[in-house]
């Protein structure tokens, strides 16, 4: 076995890159390769390099060492690019494949997905439901073998009737990691059709002023706290609802047993019943309803989904107007500057102001403004 550099296992980005090369090689026969396998460096292929700062520079130095010290890659930088690694081309050197396979303990012709599917097939009898979703993609956990991960899924059988929340179930079976199953509820239900899960109520923070002009959903905690404290004059006399990211989009948010409403200690208690009667769709509301969040695709996505739960909600112009001014003054940040390059344009939200003013401004400038800029 060829000894890998001591830092390799602790550098997830480079480990992923090395495995990508082996995956590509495993899809080709050696005789049919038209040219050496290579990859172009950009925000999608190695996103960590484009988060800027010392960590990105250190990562590039490690990649360069794979060229100069270990002869894995040949790196050809693109002239006149800033940073220098933008659009650089990494090509596997002759002999680099054998070294990588030795480092990663990856045999020729066997991809991680193939090995995973083979392990799932061997354990199929241990699950009462269907395993197609389990075989659909390779599940990996640092330091764990495929059998360890499958044993954890088998462990779910002991809690099928315990009526735990998904996070409680995850913590019990997956090494104390409560978030492991966050995106895998459908998989759990496929493996265990009779599993009983208790939904976690959505936690919502609310402040009700003495005089109410309307209801304002706020995306970020600092802006909500500032508004409650009276530091944002434009929010005076508004019922303030803190969304905490996407949780306002939960389908159960308007169900009595699906949400837990928490009122600020200085709230106007006399208005709670009226607010809750509207919230749980028991009566119509005469107050206008607005949303205010980050001026980015994620914020607009929250508005889009929130509008599916509260059809009357619209983007709040008093908050967004100030952010638009900053955008027009070229004070916004590019998605790659704030690790937001994965955000997806929602297309339309159903709100006229957002669809005709806010989203076109984002697309034209290709920049974002965070809500906390208004104070």
List keywords for this structure.
3 domains, 10% strand, alpha/beta, 6-stranded mixed beta sheet, 375 residues, flat, 3-stranded antiparallel beta sheet, Dna Topoisomerase Vi A Subunit, Chain: A, domain 2
Structural notes for this entry:
By secondary structure, this protein is of the alpha/beta class. The chain starts with 11 loop residues before the first helix and ends in a 10-residue tail after the last helix. The protein has 13 helices and nine strands. The mean pLDDT is 90. It has three domains: 8-104, no CATH class; 112-191, no CATH class; 202-373, Dna Topoisomerase Vi A Subunit, Chain: A, domain 2 (3-Layer(aba) Sandwich), CATH 3.40.1360. The chain has a six-stranded mixed beta sheet with strand order 7-4-6-5-8-9, with helices on both faces. Strands 1-3-2 form a three-stranded antiparallel beta sheet.
The quaternary structure here is single chain
- Biggest sheet overview: 6 strands, mixed
Q: Which CATH-level-2 architecture of the largest domain? A: 3-Layer(aba) Sandwich
SSE succession: HEHEEHHHHHHEEHEEHEHEHH
What is the CATH fold-level name of the largest domain?
A: Dna Topoisomerase Vi A Subunit, Chain: A, domain 2
Compute the gyration radius: what is it?
26 Å
Q: Uncertain runs with pLDDT below 50, 5 residues or more?
A: none
Q: Globular, elongated, flat, extended or rod-shaped: what is the shape?
A: flat
Structural class: alpha/beta
* Ends apart, CA distance between termini: 59 Å
Instruction: Give the overall average pLDDT.
Output: 90
Strand order of the largest sheet: 7-4-6-5-8-9
Beta strand count: 9
What fraction, in percent, of the residue positions are helical? Answer: 25-40%
């Amino acid at each position: 076995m060829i000894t890998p550099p001591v830092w390799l296992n602790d550098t997830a980005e480079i480990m992923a890159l090395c495995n990508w090369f082996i995956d590509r090689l495993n899809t080709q026969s050696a005789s049919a390769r038209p040219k050496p396998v290579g990859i172009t460096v950009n925000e999608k292929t190695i996103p960590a390099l484009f988060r800027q700062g010392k960590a990105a520079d250190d990562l590039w130095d490690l990649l360069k060492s794979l060229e100069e010290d270990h002869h894995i890659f040949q790196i050809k930088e693109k002239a006149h690019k800033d940073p220098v690694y933008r659009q650089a081309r990494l090509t596997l050197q002759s002999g680099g494949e054998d070294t990588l396979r030795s480092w990663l303990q990856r045999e020729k012709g066997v991809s991680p997905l193939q090995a995973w599917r083979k392990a799932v097939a061997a354990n199929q009898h241990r699950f009462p439901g269907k395993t197609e979703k389990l075989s659909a993609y390779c599940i990996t956990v640092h330091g764990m073998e495929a059998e360890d991960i499958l044993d954890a899924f088998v462990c779910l059988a002991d809690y099928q009737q315990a009526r735990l929340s998904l996070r409680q179930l995850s913590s019990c079976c997956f090494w104390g990691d409560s978030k492991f199953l966050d995106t895998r509820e459908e998989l759990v239900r496929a493996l265990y059709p009779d599993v009983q899960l208790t939904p976690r109520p959505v936690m919502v923070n609310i402040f009700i002023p003495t005089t109410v002009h309307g209801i304002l959903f706020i995306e970020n905690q600092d802006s909500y706290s500032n508004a409650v404290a009276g530091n944002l004059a434009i929010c005076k006399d508004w019922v303030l609802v803190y969304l905490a990211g996407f949780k306002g989009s939960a389908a159960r948010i308007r169900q009595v047993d699906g949400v837990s409403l928490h009122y600020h200690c200085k709230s106007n208690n006399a208005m709670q019943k009226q607010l809750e009667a509207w919230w749980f769709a028991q009566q119509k509301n005469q107050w206008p309803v607005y949303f205010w969040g980050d001026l980015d695709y994620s914020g607009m996505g929250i508005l889009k989904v929130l509008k599916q739960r509260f059809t009357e909600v619209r983007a709040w112009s008093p908050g967004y107007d100030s952010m638009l001014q900053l955008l027009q003054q070229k004070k916004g940040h590019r998605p790659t500057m704030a690790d937001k390059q994965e955000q997806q344009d929602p297309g339309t939200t159903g709100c006229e102001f957002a669809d005709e003013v806010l989203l076109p401004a984002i697309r034209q400038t290709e920049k974002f403004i965070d809500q906390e800029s208004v104070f």
